[in-house]
Predict the 3D structure of the following.
Amino acid sequence: MTGLRSSIKASLFVTCIVDQFYPEVGESTARVLDRLGVDLDFPRDQTCCGQPAFNAGFWNDAKPLARGFLKAFEGDRYIVAPSGSCVAMVREFYAELFHDEPALVARARDMAPRVFELTEFIVDVLGVTSLADLASKRLERCVTYHESCHLKRELGVDRQPRALLDSLPGVQLVEMPQAEVCCGFGGTFAVKYADISAAMLQDKIDSITSTSADSVVACDASCLMHIGGGLSKQELPVRATHIAELLDEAL
């Protein structure tokens, strides 16, 4: 696939969940960025950003992973990930994690302005707010959008994915009630507080099905794993789709 331009260089951070469970999301992310002309590379030394351990309170376990991330992505390239939560970890919480190590705080703060979630990167860095002219086919899909917590609250990203979805030929975006409400996953929260998580998931599924959409789209595979599992167990005809896959399909 030939890109449209090659002036912007970026590195793909694929994230743990994508690597282990949804490699197709990583592949779609790479194809979309290539189609948009990004000079993309993939640092092979990358591992976890440390978010699970950090959120669970195991900061000493998170630090080696965070140090590894800083080393793997050193340089001046943008860093793009198909995950708002992982981007929020690096951009917002590394400085807190390394609060007692000034040199690492400085490295984290230097890196932070280069780290972006996929749709944020496309809209705010590449300046692409519409994919209508690049789309190769009409998808004829009715979708609803779930606002992942870290993406919405930590990064403030909400208009960017909607702009891209709205621009796809044949895609009808129908807003669900309380799109901004958590789906109940929350990493270890879903394990520690399973009953509360399940109740929150049911509320989210009710919101999704009220739209009669054939797909629920989000920017985080972790949310989609939780929501998709609930939809599947209830045998509901709604597909949980990462936005990278939908953009890839259209382009």
Q: What stands out?
A: The chain has 13 helices and eight strands.
